[in-house]
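dumping this here before i forget
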Amino acid sequence: MNATTFLFLLTGVLLNAVAQLLLKAGVRPLGPLSVDAATFASTLGRVLGQGPILLGLSCYVLSVGVWLVALSRVDVSIAYPMLSLGYVVNAVAAYWLFGEALGPLRCAGIAFILLGVFMVARS
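structure:
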């Protein structure tokens, strides 16, 4: 895998991770969402009225475009495991941005993910 291909993969992963963080930031002020037939339209309106959610959805769309370029250059069996890096980025960013827990067991899991991605990338 050359540097350009790796950059496309990494960009796709990071856009996906940023999308998740923006979606979380967008739903936080709304509190727990309730979805049923009676409230579906109003809930959808409240959700889509949040700027971070719209930005997050835009990041998803952009990440798909970048991901298509990456998949055209590398085997999916190599590319797809790279998405696991998004878990690492999101765990650390959620700890920093939202005060979410990042205890020893979660850190050990992150270390295993990093090791696994490294092994797949080197194969």
